[in-house]
Specification:
Strand order of the largest sheet: 1-2
Order of helices and strands: EEHHHH
Structural class: mainly alpha
Largest sheet: 2 strands, antiparallel
Strand content: under 5%
Shape: elongated
């Protein structure tokens, strides 16, 4: 995968570096501020979808780059291992976000009350909120670790 003769991987990585933290912050806010859920529900889902797609595309483009230059494999192995973990963390994160969007309730910010969602038992809401925060932290941490390892490979 190339764009004007350049590997696509470094370009796509920048999209993931922007979308992953944005999705993580939205998800953490969605889980911890019930009064904002009515406004954050769908933006959180869509930004999280963009984040998981960008991570997946970066992962695939990285594999493609390695297929074209197999001599790099011993050098990039630590980066590749972290990218594999990030890929699966992003998928699990997105699943938790979607489950939360449908299972977490909260009041509406509108005077009419439109958009209010029925509250679930506290164990469900607290579990989903905790998972959102935990996976947001894991996702940001893995994105940083993977990107830092890749940057060290390129910049020495």
């Amino acid at each position: 995968m190339e764009l004007n003769g350049l590997p696509v991987h470094p370009l796509i990585v920048h999209l993931a570096v922007v979308l992953v933290p944005a999705a993580a912050v939205l998800a953490a806010l969605y889980g911890t501020v019930p009064g904002w859920r009515w406004a954050l529900r769908w933006p959180t889902v869509w930004v999280s979808l963009g984040a998981v797609v960008s991570v997946a595309y970066a992962w695939v483009s990285g594999r493609d780059l390695l297929d074209r230059k197999p001599e790099l494999e011993p050098i990039i192995q630590p980066h590749q291992e972290r990218a594999d973990i990030l890929f699966w963390c992003a998928i699990v994160f997105f699943v938790v976000v979607v489950l939360s969007a449908f299972w977490m309730g909260g009041p509406s910010g509108l005077v009419s009350g439109k958009g209010e969602r029925r509250r679930r038992p506290p164990v469900i809401e607290l579990s989903l909120a905790a998972m959102l925060v935990i996976f947001a932290i894991v996702l940001i941490t893995m994105t940083f670790a993977t990107g830092e390892q890749g940057a060290r490979l390129v910049w020495g």
